[in-house]
């Protein structure tokens, strides 16, 4: 497996992108969209709740102290980016992260921020 200069392992597709970013502007654009999704404290709080597992809108509202309409709006946005999926059981909708990579990105960024404040 290849690695970037700081020894972060990357797969062959990412290695190719690192060498020739102009060859895959769509992947770069989608990555920018991911960072836009993570750019608001409200969505970050919601994604942290979902990093623990499936949750209903009610649970997300209670955990984040955000309004129900705001949570629903953010969930629609996150679903549109394919970051969050929904599993409907009867009348209840359970939301979850579609990809554990998102949780890792958030946790790495939080660790960076917390460690940065300790120094």
Automatic annotation (TrEMBL):
Gene3D superfamilies documented for this protein: Winged helix-like DNA-binding domain superfamily/Winged helix DNA-binding domain
Signal peptide: none
Any Pfam family the entry gives: HTH_5
Entry keywords, A to Z: DNA-binding, Transcription, Transcription regulation
Residues annotated as domain HTH arsR-type: 23-117
UniProt cross-references to InterPro entries, sorted A to Z: ArsR-like_HTH (IPR011991), HTH_ArsR_DNA-bd_dom (IPR001845), HTH_MetalResp_TranReg (IPR051081), WH-like_DNA-bd_sf (IPR036388), WH_DNA-bd_sf (IPR036390)
Key word DNA-binding present: yes
GO molecular function: DNA binding; DNA-binding transcription factor activity
Annotated NCBIfam families: HTH_metalloreg
PANTHER family per the UniProt record, alphabetical: ARSENICAL RESISTANCE OPERON REPRESSOR (PTHR33154:SF18), TRANSCRIPTIONAL REGULATOR, ARSR FAMILY (PTHR33154)
Name of the molecule in the record: Transcriptional regulator, ArsR family
Source organism: Brevibacterium antiquum
């Amino acid at each position: 497996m290849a690695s970037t200069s700081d020894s972060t392992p990357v797969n062959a597709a990412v290695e190719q992108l690192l060498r020739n970013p102009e060859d895959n502007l769509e992947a770069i654009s989608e990555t920018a969209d991911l960072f836009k999704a993570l750019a608001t404290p409200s969505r970050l709080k919601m994604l942290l709740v979902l990093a623990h597992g499936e949750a209903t809108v009610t649970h997300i509202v209670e955990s984040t102290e955000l309004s129900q309409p705001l949570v629903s709006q953010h969930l629609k946005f996150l679903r549109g980016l394919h970051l969050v999926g929904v599993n409907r059981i009867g009348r209840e909708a359970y939301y979850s992260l579609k990809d554990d990579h998102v949780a890792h990105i958030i946790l790495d960024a939080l660790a960076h921020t917390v460690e940065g404040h300790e120094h």
